[in-house]
Amino acid sequence: MRDSGKGFVTKFQVAKSFMEQYEIHQVGTIHHTEWWIPAEDLAQLNDHIVGTIDVIHEFSA
Predict the structure, then answer these.
(1) Half-sphere exposure of 39 (CA within 13 A, CB side)
(2) pLDDT single digits (tens) 16-34
(3) Dist. CA 14–CA 8, nearest whole Å
(4) Alpha carbons 45 and 49: distance in angstroms, whole number
(5) Where would I find the H helices in the chain?
């Protein structure tokens, strides 16, 4: 939320069967990896979230 001066780090699980269709990319050190999910697949990603979304850190400007 750039305009509000707030940001959030969240943690959640996604069904493995959904995530298996995407490659994991190394984006820094060997320990920094992430999935690249196309924007057009965001609704499907949301549908495959398992459990709750936890806020683990909040940033304020």
Answers:
(1) 0
(2) 999 999 999 999 888 899 9
(3) 18
(4) 7
(5) 16-19, 42-47
Token pair listed for 43: 């609704």
Token code pair at residue 35? 């999935």
List Cα–Cα distances, 20 to 6, 15, 23, 30, 52, in angstroms: 32, 9, 8, 20, 21
The model's confidence at residue 5, banded by pLDDT at 50, 70 and 90, is confident
Cα-to-chain-centroid distance, residue 33 = 11
**Count of C-beta atoms within a 10 Å radius of residue 55:** 9
Query: How far, in Å, CA of 5 to CA of 3, rounded?
Result: 6
